[in-house]
Amino acid sequence: MIDIFAKHAALRTAYEGLTAVSPRNPFEVVIERPLSATVGLIEGRETLLFGTNNYLGLSQSSRAAEAAIETARTMGVGTTGSRIANGTFGLHQRLEKRLASFFGRKHCMVFSTGYQANLGTISALVNKDDVLLLDADSHASIYDGAKLSGAQVIRFRHNDPVDLEKRLARLKDHPGAKLIIAEGIYSMTGNVAPLDKFVDIKTRHGAYLMADEAHSFGVLGEHGRGVAEMQGCEDGIDFIVGTFSKSLGTVGGYCVTDHDGVDLMRLCSRPYMFTASLPPEIIAATLAALDDMEARPELRVKLQENAARLHAGLKAAGLQTGEHVSPVVAVTLENIPQAVGFWNALLENGVYVNLSLPPATPDNRPLLRCSVMAAHSAEEIDKATAVFKAVAEHFQA
Amino acid sequence: MTDSVAGISGMIIEKLLANPKVPRDINGNSKIVEDLAFDSLAVMNFVMEIEDELDVSVPLDKLADIRTINDLAACLHTLKASQA
């Protein structure tokens, strides 16, 4: 009998090599419970949370919690069905209308997760006769959506409009539709995409453009509509995809657009059709969090201040970070054993960040990925950067 | 030099050898993943460099069937020919 797990031998070796040198398993960190948006109990210790994507701190919104409790009491805790069968409640339509209005778009589709929003949108928009042009550093959900679609996939160099244009020019005689996909803020590095430049290119080459604003929704732009709003190019983006699981603190995803053809996506997008829809209490919490986000623009101002403070603090500590100041700040290290040691020391000293390892990172180098929140105080950020500095000095000694 | 499969294969080997981590004894039959210890991302990034050299784009699905340097050269040659 063939060992069905034999294919994972190399993965097992890498995993065992990693866990052998790490006092704790980096893939099994348990936040026993959050004490606030910024502090959680880990290994019985109060730990500063700098790796949660909870940019506005709204996972702890009392308005959202109350809305969820009230809705669970009146509507129950689940829909037990898919959107095209028995899983569409009035609340789903209300959320779709609310998001379409927030983005100033004609249409919105809501998905059960952000991952499914990419899978469901990409796989419904293109097929084997079409071409997808993906930023090389795209999230796994974009690559998986591309695979599910069957379209030809061509990667262009990360954030490089010249490279994108060169690849589009090579496709000038291709008869299929061309869809360019880029993210607003890149989840691993915090890099911001030049969406305005991509709009110019897609217009010249007759292509469509989709932006995944998962990490920039609620974060950038005067109203929190993301990088496209910040760069003044929203009209040129055909499809905006995003998630509720970052700035809004709940779970679920969406696609907004002005293209009327999107209505048919409800009848051909398999990740939309063949899964249970979002539970009503999650929709209610998401709507309330959206109200919170709109009513408190000062959260975005505070978030930018905190992002700049963390970025400057880590740079001053002599650490290698990206150039973009955004709520995701990645510290690049040289090798995996160093990164594992550094990450463990941070956690033991009360700071939780994400340990990100190749091949999920660019350039084959490990990252300590930090995400900052509007809810962090200046003291919490300074404490985290001081711990980073002390650990870095320890490793250099 | 790059209008034949052998020429493209030679160019790929030359590019690979510029990386000091690549074994010195590679040839056209070397397996990219097993012999060069490239993971999937490294393969995709390396192919990007070759694409620029030949002014051609390789769709990702084509990479699934490529095992050796010669396989990659043959794929690039076909794509280049279809573009002409």
TrEMBL record, chain A:
> What keywords would UniProt list here?
Pyridoxal phosphate, Transferase
InterPro entries (alphabetical): Aminotrans_II_pyridoxalP_BS, Aminotransferase_I/II_large, AON_synthase_class-II, PyrdxlP-dep_Trfase, PyrdxlP-dep_Trfase_major, PyrdxlP-dep_Trfase_small
Q: Where is the Aminotransferase class I/classII large domain?
A: 47-385
UniProt protein name: Serine palmitoyltransferase
Q: Which cofactor does it need?
A: pyridoxal 5'-phosphate
Chloroplast keyword on record: no
Is Transferase one of the keywords UniProt gives this record? yes
**Family named by the database record:** Belongs to the class-II pyridoxal-phosphate-dependent aminotransferase family.
Database matches in Pfam families: Aminotran_1_2 (PF00155)
Gene3D superfamilies in the cross-refs = Aspartate Aminotransferase, domain 1, Type I PLP-dependent aspartate aminotransferase-like (Major domain)
The superkingdom of the source organism is Bacteria
Query: PANTHER family under this entry?
Result: CLASS II AMINOTRANSFERASE/8-AMINO-7-OXONONANOATE SYNTHASE, LD36009P
TrEMBL record, chain B:
This protein's source sits in the domain of life called Bacteria
In terms of Pfam families, this protein maps to: PP-binding
- The residues forming the signal peptide are none
Limits of the Carrier domain: 3-80
Name recorded for this polypeptide: Acyl carrier protein
